[in-house]
Write a structure and sequence with these properties.
With 169 residues, the chain is mostly helical. The protein has 5 helices and no strands. The protein has one domain (14-162). It has helices at residues 17-45, 53-81, 98-120, 134-146, 148-162.
């Protein structure tokens, strides 16, 4: 029984896997160059267009998280498309994961930036060195974005320890 959540029916925009793969490849390339373009504008022209250093730091953190998620997403894309003659990776193309693949860099960016804000506010039991460095913000958020699934699972486990459980009274 097919409930519409598997296969091509879930992604009606593409008639074939090949068309979807080409679209996702172009999407990844455009997203990469857009993010790098933003980095260049922020780094070299940010002050000329009136972006304060604190705003630049926040934007660098968001872009760092985005690019971390982009790398994770691109590695997965490569793994499922570059199978070669013998399908050495054993990961078939799954068209129904289209939305996951498109949203991953954005979600990773949000997770990374939010976690970075908590860490820079000394909310966690560790402290960040050079909190006011845009490079540090970018680098930390890149890692948090790349490992955003792990970050979310650790945050959930941590929240379960500190958030009181509802009583049955």
């Amino acid at each position: 029984m097919n409930n519409g959540l598997e296969g091509r029916e879930c992604v009606p925009f593409f008639k074939t896997d090949k068309n979807q793969i080409i679209f996702e490849f172009v999407y990844l390339i455009v997203a990469f160059f857009a993010a790098v373009g933003l980095l260049v504008v922020l780094q070299f022209y940010g002050d000329k267009v009136g972006i304060s250093y604190r705003d630049k730091l926040a934007m660098m953190a968001v872009i760092g998280g985005f690019l971390g998620g982009w790398v994770y997403d691109t590695k997965w894309f490569y793994r499922v498309t570059a199978r070669g003659k013998r399908d050495q990776y054993g990961f078939p193309w799954q068209p129904h994961k289209f939305y996951w693949r498109v949203m991953t860099p954005f979600l990773a960016s949000l997770v990374a930036f939010s976690t970075y804000l908590l860490a820079s506010a000394d909310f966690f039991p560790f402290s960040l060195k050079e909190k006011e460095s845009a490079r540090t913000a970018f680098a930390i958020c890149f890692l948090l974005g790349y490992f955003s699934d792990l970050v979310l699972s650790r945050l959930a486990a941590w929240a379960e320890k500190i958030v009181p459980k509802a009583s049955n009274d």
